[in-house]
Amino acid sequence: MSDEKKTVREEKLLRLKEDLNINPYPARCLESMSIDEIRDAGETEDNIVASGRLTGKREHGKTVFADLRDGTGSIQLYLGRKVLSDRDWSVLNLLDLGDIVQVKGSVFTTRTGELTVKCEGMELLSKSLKQLPVVKVDAEGVAHDEVTDRDFLYRHRCVDLQVNRDSLDRFVKRSRIISALRSYLDSIGFLEVETPVLQPLYGGAAAEPFETMYGSMNQQFYLRIATELYLKRLIAGGIDRVYELGKDFRNEGIDRTHSPEFTQLELYEAYADYSVMMNRFEDMFCAAAEVAGHGDSFVYQGENIDITPPFRRTGFLDSLRKASGEDLFSWEIEDLRRLIDKNGIITQADDRITMLDKLFDHYVARRIQQPTFVIDYPEELSPLAKRKEGASGVTERFEVFIAGLELANAFSEQNNPVLQRKILKEQADASMHRKGELDEDFLYALETGIPPTGGMGIGVDRLVMILTDTGKIRDTILFPHLRRNDQ
RNA sequence: GAGCCGCUAGCUCAGUUGGCAGAGCAUCUGACUUUUAAUCAGAGGGUCGGGGGUUCGAUUCCCCCGCGGCUCACCA
Questions:
Q1: A49-72 confidence digits (pLDDT tens)
Q2: Chain A, 72-91: which CBs lie within 7 Å of strand B?
Q3: HSE of A204 in the Cβ direction (CA atoms, 13 Å)?
Q4: Are A245 and A390 in the same domain?
């Protein structure tokens, strides 16, 4: 061991152990009430037990006021020289902010109107050796010295959750939103399943995969970019309502709305189509909004969002035509390029359909504020969707946009195995990476026959962004990826 | 992957036109029996992200590197 100087807290730890014969990390403690329960119960002469982290300490000679916080809330402690035993008073003097303690006592209201535990006994449950940032909130509710260093907070989420109240609230809501999605699907007969994260072939979306060497198989595997092709195998297997809620991985850029590791909900429903998926989306979105504490509307990044169903519907080509004032779908590639340049859109797109998609993003998608189903996408953009009957070149597909964010993507699934094989073959031939490889197992499943099916993918992190008024996807993810910082 | 910005005490930040590095909160000592951003008096605390260069002297100027932030690109 080194002979480095002990920190103040390490000294206190030693004094607790040697001078006071206290175990600073006991294995057991008394059962205690949660702090919100204590608050609900109000004043009482009875002895209650409360446990939590010491987050504030105001010393007044023979009296100390402190703040105790657990996962449910915070309450003030009153610690008096005359009330506490000599031993507890000595322990108190060796406590630091951040220590975890248990107190026993009655509950009263101070003359300033603060509900307070009058402590008669106190036990140290765990000594904190790190001096954490102290965030104080004044009478107007303004937080002082709030920790803002993103790097620090992402690397030490435990600190973020302790000192930044907003952060904890956001992740609690995230959890509740996910529960609400599951409850909805479970309640109408959907079966939750788990499909492989490591896949010998990847598919179901157009994205760069993460690659990994599978040692005992002696083969290259990929982290999934979507669960689609496996869930449809289950539809073929007769699981008529199926969903998976889990991580997908796309080896692409990180920005405000993209995380390479993200959470997606994919659901498939046999004997349904994309219009049923619209209803499912509305139902789930409203259920999630409710558990996030919202009514018919809420504010996202300063904009009021009205979530009263039904949500607006607009055609992909119609909306593009209206917004641009031109029938872009019939334009030649040179003219599209000129329009893209004129609008200052920076893109490497060189084919007609990608250019149209870029123009759609520019003219329509990013300007959509209120919940909107953009329906009937061009078939070139939608290889896994069924073509719309009676309309040429479009598919039964929609995406949901709210506040300029793409939240969901759904379609009436292509269940014609002959057409599907043809489309995937053309796509594979055109791709540099896939080298013409088709997912034959998936096609086999289609060839055994699957019913008409509606399917949908929902970006869960983005849903949480919208419902918690969060501007960056990273802030909805507990442990976003960071480079190692070994210094 | 590109451009711009940042990195100073545990936290929030100031500052040095190149000359022993500052504040508030936190910490430590003392005072105080109902405070709540408690107050008052005093004290300690820094490899100024890392490495190199210029210079009598660099935390400050220059170069390289690391990490982060913002914008953009990639992302059916």
A1: 999 999 999 999 999 999 999 989
A2: 76, 78, 80-82
A3: 27
A4: yes
